[in-house]
Amino acid sequence: MAGGLGRGGQLGGVVFRQQKWKSSVSMRAKMPPCDFVPEEYRSYPYERMLKIREQNIAPSLRMYYKKPLLLHQGHMQWLFDYEGRRYLDLFAGIVTVSVGHCHPKVTLAAQKQLACLWHTTNIYMHPSIHEYAEKLTSLLPDPLKVVYLTNSGSEANDLAMFMARLYTRNFDVICLRGAYHGGSPYALGLTSIGSYKHGVANGIGCSTTMLPDVFRGPWGGSNCRDSPVQTVRKCSCSEGVCHANEQYIEQFKDTLNTSVPKTIAGFIAEPIQGINGAVQYPKGFLKEAYRLVRERGGVCIADEVQTGFGRTGSHFWGFQTHDVVPDIITLAKGIGNGFPMAAVVTTKEIANSLAQNLHFNTFGGNPMACVVGSAVLDAIEEDSLQKNSKDVGTYMLLELAKLRDKFEIVGDVRGKGLMIGIEMVTDKDSRHPLPAEEINQIWEDCKDMGVLIGRGGLYNQSCSCVSFAAISYPHFQQRQYKLLLD
Ligand SMILES: Cc1ncc(COP(=O)(O)O)c(C=O)c1O
User: Fold this and answer.
1) Which of 14, 129, 245, 347 lies 20 to 30 Å (CA to CA) from residue 70?
2) Which CDD domains has this protein been placed in (predicted)?
């Protein structure tokens, strides 16, 4: 272990910082081989891009890294910058590139459709939307059989909330603290991370409830999670009992009794909370929460934007890992491998609530999106990506757990399949978030080594910072993780 480095530097000292003095090229020595050769970059110089960014692109779109990356080409798990430098993309375009950058099958399908028909709008029929709706719903249990295609996850969640309200004729929706469900004014009411909130009215009729976070929350033990890796917290529960779950359910009941009317429109939750750092609830929590919501007349919405399409490994959909069937699910990100598309899938009855009056969007379900979506589903199946997520994710989780046991600043390792979170802390006893500057250094060092990872967590944008590496690349092979961990 590198001596003389601070507490926060221990992990960095061993894995990252001792290499800092080397040139960035030599720091890439351990990168797995890749025989893809990117094209030469031929656009504006880097400095000009920065200037355009400063002058013509909305400042709310923040960039990552001290020297922001200018990316130029992608090939499966690899990204190439304008100087031809190669990066292993473990963040997958914020959990979106589900089958690999420019996956040949998906690219070919898009190219063919591009030469045939781009757009018609939904007032006419075209084959791809019907083929896609049938294919997508064949992967879902009854009664989730009706698809509404949208352009983004935020729009999907807007629509889900709207449908819940129309169908139930109730208004109140409950969501979990720490959740991200979108940035549109309607969905923002469901998003419960302070840094995304703006000082304008939002969330009328949206109530938050306690996040059942078995690592950072008041309750949790060493058996709570559906994951190969548990927290280091002790557990004295007997077989079949989870006191942490009981406590969190009490909190949920408290919200039902204090914050909403007797009847509600619904409840929305991700099967694993993504942007907050792959937070997993105790086993059984969602099942009991769904029961309580339905008792109040509400519908249950699963936001599968991050957990869908086999990413959790054991199942194709995140909700299946909780032994529940939602009334509405919302899909985005991995659905199109980066193509702008999203979906709401629900029951015929709930969908009918929207059919009483006109509801329309121009681009949702256009031919391009539908053929891309179809090709993504084929690629997941043909490349066995769900199994890959399970095998590689389990391997990765168990290896990362060894780092947690070795280093004080690795507080928690969690997740399922390739939905993995690593929570960094000052020390395991206090669980205080690792300060931002230390997180930033680790994060920059990973990038300098050629590995792109994500960040999240409730305190990410503020000075004290919880950070997570969201690792999410179904196409990624075990051999490559092994090289990294070594
Ligand atoms: C769980 C979840 N739901 C919804 C959204 C919103 O999706 P979009 O950015 O496509 O509007 C996101 C985006 O990060 C998300 O992670």
Assistant:
1) 14
2) OAT_like
Q: What is the pTM of this model?
A: 0.92
Atom index in ligand 1 nearest the CA of residue 333 equals 10
Q: Whose CA is nearest to atom 13 of ligand 1?
A: 182
State the Rg of the chain over Cα.
22
Q: Which residues contact 436 (CB under 8 A, 6 or more apart)?
A: 462, 463, 464, 465
The 10 Å CB-count burial string (b at 16+, else e) for 404-438 is beebebbbbbbbbbbbbbbbbbbeeeebebbbbeb
Peptide bond into 143 cis (omega under 30): yes
Tell whether ligand 1 has an atom less than 6 A from the beta carbon of residue 144.
no
Q: What is the 3-state secondary structure (H, E, C) of 211-245?
A: CCCCCCCCCCCCCCCCCCCCCCCCCCCCCCCCHHH
Strand spans (E) along 30-128: 71-75, 78-81, 86-89
Residues pairing with 423 in the sheet = 412
Which pLDDT tens digit goes with each residue over 83-129?
999 999 988 988 999 999 999 999 999 999 999 999 998 889 999 99
Identify each DSSP E strand in 137-214 by its residue range.
146-150, 173-176, 206-209
Domains, the chain, in order of start with CATH, read 30-42+59-89 (no CATH), 107-382 (3.40.640.10)
pLDDT in tens, 221-264: 999 999 999 999 999 999 889 999 999 999 999 999 999 999 99
- Which H or E run includes 418? none
In short, whether 336's Cβ falls inside 6 Å of ligand 1 is no
- 247-256, 262-271, 383-392: least confidently modelled range: 383-392
If phi over 0 gives left and psi between -120 and 50 gives alpha, with beta otherwise, what is residue 328? beta
> Rounded to the nearest 5 degrees, what angle is found at the Cα of 225, between the Cα atoms of 299 and 484?
115
- Which among 167, 203, 208 is positioned nearest to 187, based on CA atoms? 203
Which residues, other chains included, contact 93 with Cβ-Cβ below 8 Å and sequence gap of 6+?
A: 338
Q: What 3-state class would DSSP assign to 274?
A: coil
